[in-house]
């Protein structure tokens, strides 16, 4: 047995290796050994001899409490005076010495100095307590501490792992490989079954909500869209809401009506210009549109080639490169996809302007091309990724790619706002006459492109849901941050767009694009699960031939009638009646739709007839008022003649005829039935 001597404060302590290994941990043994080595330093021995010499002489000098705590350093030494003795990270003997030293300092420095020192200590303690209380008010403080307690850091982990999705993040609940079957392994309550049911539940709920929004929006657009034309008079005389009392709300409503009138007038102007086109102009226009369509196809093909080469370069192994270079290579496909999705929609917008469509058609054509670009680029990237994925835990690799797409999307939005939008605004405001300011111009907030970015983000979330289960939560936090960043961009850096945008005409298109993204995610997930077997090294489906085999054990454990029912529901014998029932239901709904359409047409005809009846009744009312006015003017004219005039009436019949003649002079539309008799 090897003994170690520790001389501290005039007493001896024996520490053996066996006692260390049996009573304390290895880390505590190392700390004790370091403290003993520090106590044996010549400087520490000199300080202790000086301190004992001063105590023997009875001097009033006192040493600093840091000398009594050689194990403390840095911030811990600075807080030695303010920190409570019971919370000092030293042994009990050192705490007793610190207590005696503080009492000694209190007796020797005087009452006034002692009172000031106590007040300073109390203020510092109060500040620390207030800071801790404020930190507890943050809703994510305890969550972060809990997560920090569960993330296992190793020697190769770094901050860059947060951006790449490797290291400690790969071993966290963020990715597929964290969830093992051993954590919960019952017949009908196990990790694989819950994992699969959770994914299917999210996708089914998303499908129901997206389809509902699409159908409701389409019904509203079909009823109040192109089939029901609203005249300008309605917008002018019936567009104002007289319940508005707030000046800001009134100004907003006024701006909305003004924009609607501008858009209506611009559409009317386009229709008039289109009606005046000749046959030669139409031929030239169609030739130009054909060339521009070919240009769009060339741009899409070039974008797909860039994504392919970026994916190949990212998947190549480069072990000798620097860490930063490896991170950039990992982010090369997201960078290329983000740049392509940022620049090409603006090119498509200018191409649609050159094609000379109407405003609504230009917006819809740009949206269709842009969403095809975004979804097709994502689909091509997934195809190239799966084609070259040969790793053991390929689910984690796929989840990391979706995670990187989401993270870089947020980084691109942040950099675009603070490194492009703000410098651009500052340049235009500070140097408006410079050529760079005239070239860049003022920034416009384009609503369709920002909505397409949301569709793209949601599609990435659906695609990576199975492989990165925490991606919906990450996407929620990201979209919340992006909302405030976009709000700051709109209010501080952007000006209103020169061309109006009618959101009601494109809302159905947005929801339909979102539905296409969901269908693409479901097809991608289904094809991957059907084509590739689950990894044998990670995940909850280790040892299963397919993902859907996890339900077999649960079904076998159920009673006989339940097993028969479930097997019948999953067999072909149930599918055929289900399809027939769907056909009957769809036929009934189609018949009802046609009947409702005919009823709507009849109601429209009735509205037209009621409008015609109103015009007829108004005309008849006007004519009756004119006739009544003629009747009252005749006696007034007769009574207004002078007495003794040669034209004074002797015969009543003559007066009536003369009055009718005067009425005819004032109203030529009134025609008498005879020469002398009134009509």
TrEMBL record:
The chain crosses the membrane at residues 193-211, 291-311, 323-344, 365-385, 405-422, 508-527, 568-589. Residues 56-79 have a biased composition (Basic and acidic residues). Residues 634-650, 670-679 have a biased composition (Polar residues). Keywords: Membrane, Transmembrane, Transmembrane helix. GO terms for cellular component: plasma membrane. Residues 46-55 have a biased composition (Basic residues). Residues 393-504 form the TMC domain. It is a multi-pass membrane protein. Belongs to the TMC family. This is Transmembrane channel-like protein. It comes from Salvelinus namaycush (Lake trout).
